[in-house]
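Reopening this ticket.

The earlier resolution said the output was attached, but the attachment link was broken on my side. Pasting everything inline this time so it's all in one place.
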Amino acid sequence: MNRFERFPEPHGEAEVRYLDGEFRILRPGSFVRCAVTGQTIPLDELRYWSVDLQEAYVDPEAVLIRVRDRPVG
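Inline output:
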């Protein structure tokens, strides 16, 4: 999704495909959940995610927690 795409936002959780530098909405919704904290993240505030894990994160601290706690290998 780029900053010029504007659609009426339905309520509920969106299903998103996380890509390098952008994301694609597979099922419309107004938010996604942080994989670490469970907090809701409005789509227009989504800044942090993992392409490999296909997870969203609420802030940089949540990213660090996921990276630190993830098993190597």
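Reporter confirms the inline version is readable. The first strand starts at residue 15 and ends at 19. Helices lie at 60-69.
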